[in-house]
Write a structure and sequence with these properties.
single chain, 356 residues, mainly beta, Immunoglobulin-like, 2 domains, eight-stranded antiparallel β-sheet, six-stranded antiparallel β-sheet, 1 helix, 25 strands, elongated
């Protein structure tokens, strides 16, 4: 789909639910801990600090964090953005890139509580996460050091703080997945550079004595039945960026989703498609906003006022992929020869969470 090519007038009235006000919540972790590579029986489940990176002795440190998203946001909401905010409280090195990865298995936070600066951890207690164990002493990780998605959800350069923030379209997708399927919420793991000498950064944990320094997850969302526009659309030959909107409520009971692409060049050809993940990658004269598993569902001709519409009947989707409380990302691509360049462009993206 990354090689997509561009393929009766009315008043555009996007669907808006009565309770369309967006919301913001700030969550504290329900679990956090540090993995220490020097031993499978060292942990710090109840400590005041988290660590990511390597020590001067080349021992690795990785921090785990999990937030209870489903208890704070209504089911069926669409996540607009998600930002992890940490307070870096100690470092012996300048700026380093620290990566945030989605964890693939459950893990524990036991009663272990290291003393002093906590950099070497302490003896693991029952239920602790350690370098080799998800739950000490007898439930192992598949891979020592944690089981996680290889591609990071976000990368942030950590210097000397404060308020280091990891936020991306992928973190929004992660949180959306945890909201839609709470049983898959195993949180994130924070990994600093692990070659080339000391790189460790210390962050304050959820039990730190200073509440203002504890980790936070800041989530912006739209309520159920209200899709969320995301990703930047660039101006086309009309001088405006293309925009995608839903014309009816995204409920499976409706049988179909009606979409409208607006601000298009008059009478241009427009292709509609959708996929599983968000992105913002240059394509043509604009940005591709959809990635993952992709489906195309037809073309339409823009009206003389620059509006193209297309209906997606749910029964025609391959494999009945659209299920209750699933989120899909939609976009439209259109020809725009008058703008020069590649001769085609895209609307912004529209993230849609479907209710029964």
């Amino acid at each position: 789909m990354t090689t997509l090519r561009a393929l009766s007038a009315f008043v555009l009235v996007p669907f808006l639910a009565a309770s369309a006000a967006a919301g913001t919540v700030t969550l504290a972790p329900v679990q956090d801990s540090t993995l220490y590579s020097q031993s499978g029986s060292v942990a710090n489940g109840a400590g005041d600090y988290l660590f990511a990176g390597t020590t001067a002795q080349s021992a690795k440190r990785r921090a785990l964090l999990r937030f209870d998203v489903a208890s704070a946001i209504p089911a069926g909401s669409t996540i607009v953005s998600a930002a992890l905010v940490l307070n870096m409280s100690q470092s012996a090195i300048g700026p380093v890139d620290v990566k945030l990865h989605r964890v693939l298995a459950s893990w524990g936070e036991g009663a272990s509580n290291a003393t002093g600066q906590e950099g070497t951890g302490t003896t693991a207690q029952a239920g602790d996460a350690t370098w080799t164990m998800r739950f000490f002493p007898s439930t192992p990780w598949t891979t020592p050091g944690g089981d996680f998605v290889a591609t990071p959800s976000a990368i942030h350069t950590v210097d000397f703080g404060p308020n280091d923030t990891w936020s991306s379209l992928a973190t929004a997708d992660d949180v959306q997945g945890w909201l839609n399927a709470p049983a898959t919420n195993f949180g994130w793991i924070l990994i600093g550079p692990e070659t080339g000498g000391a790189s460790a950064k210390r962050f304050d944990s959820r039990t730190n004595p200073t509440p203002a320094n504890r980790p936070q997850l800041v989530i912006d969302f739209t309520p159920p039945l209200v899709p969320a526009n995301y990703c930047s659309a660039t101006a086309n030959s009309t001088g405006l960026p293309g925009r995608l909107d839903a014309l009816n409520a995204p409920s499976l009971a409706n049988g179909a989703l009606q979409l409208a692409a607006s601000n298009l060049p008059p009478n241009t050809s427009c292709t509609f498609f959708f996929g599983t993940q968000r992105t913002e990658t240059p394509l043509g004269n604009g940005n591709l906003c959809v990635t993952g598993s992709l489906f195309r569902f037809g073309t339409a001709q823009a009206s003389s006022t620059g509006v193209a519409t297309r209906t997606l009947p749910f029964g025609t989707v391959p494999g009945n992929a659209i299920n209750p409380f699933s989120t899909w990302c939609f976009q439209a691509q259109y020809r725009n020869v008058a703008a020069g360049g590649a001769g085609f462009n895209q609307t912004d993206g529209l993230a849609v969470t479907f209710l029964p």
